[in-house]
């Protein structure tokens, strides 16, 4: 698998090398009388790789939904690369460089891998509303090929997505998230349902992403999460419980008692 080439337009990346990518201040989301998340405050720096961990029901996916604009928070503020996007619709956050994968694959099963990735590239380009078929020299076709290679699916480029293994579909989702000029990607349980070999491939893909692309990963597989993240936020009952490095979280007695059953091998 080759490293992902960065071929975005000049001037797009200079502003993302420093400062915060994501700032959450007092984010609360109520569903009736139930607080799915409460007073969540977190800062993710540009280029940072953060894991958000916690048991089922801890509020992780609800937090992602608020960040992406699928849900609007009941209270609190969300800043994306310094801009307040708390009330912005999802597509405006995508335009600012936010991407997201979901727990359930959202792919065009009747199209090939190459078609799926090309459409993703086309969807975030200026010519996304054009009805013209792509020509052989279309730069988006070349970009799609780069992304397919980056997630190690070149040999399956002409394969229908419905014929891919589950692990390959998850790899394809990462390629789709890389379309355009992503600055921050939210990965929602990318290792769920993967075999040990597929998890190892996922780790290779995530750790080989360009340094300017930060990500936040929700993951139940601690072995994956602690290997691909440089910082960790633990959630419990909709609140931030602990923050630290992977080593600090792994060795924290309270974390071990609450999440790891007293130890982690």
Ordered list of secondary-structure elements with their pairings:
Layout: E1 20-31, E2 34-45, E3 49-53, H1 60-68, E4 75-80, E5 83-84, H2 90-95, E6 98-100, H3 113-123, H4 139-150, H5 166-177, E7 184-188, H6 196-207, E8 214-218, H7 222-228, E9 231-236, E10 239-244, H8 246-251, H9 253-259
Parallel strand pairs: 3-8, 3-9, 6-7, 7-8
Antiparallel strand pairs: 1-2, 1-4, 4-5, 9-10
Helix pairs in contact: 3-4, 3-5
InterPro entries: AAA+_ATPase, ABC_AA/LPS_Transport, ABC_transporter-like_ATP-bd, BCA_ABC_TP_C, P-loop_NTPase
Pfam family, one: BCA_ABC_TP_C
GO molecular function: ATP binding
Structural class: alpha/beta
CATH superfamily of the largest domain: P-loop containing nucleotide triphosphate hydrolases
- Return the CATH architecture of the largest domain: 3-Layer(aba) Sandwich
**pLDDT < 50 stretches:** 5-17
Q: Key terms for this structure?
A:
265 residues; alpha/beta; Rossmann fold; 2 domains; 9 helices; 10 strands; globular
Report on this model:
The structure is a single chain. The protein has 265 residues and is α/β, with parallel strands linked by helices. The protein folds into two domains: 20-97 and 181-265, P-loop containing nucleotide triphosphate hydrolases (Rossmann fold), CATH 3.40.50; 109-177, no CATH class. Helices cover 31% and strands 23% of the residues. The strands form two sheets. The chain has a six-stranded mixed β-sheet with strand order 6-7-8-3-9-10, sandwiched between helices. Strands 2-1-4-5 form a four-stranded antiparallel β-sheet, with helices on one face. Strand 7, helix 6 (196-207) and strand 8 (214-218) form a beta-alpha-beta unit. The chain starts with 19 loop residues before the first strand and ends in a 6-residue tail after the last helix. This is ABC transporter ATP-binding protein. Residues 22-262 form the ABC transporter domain.
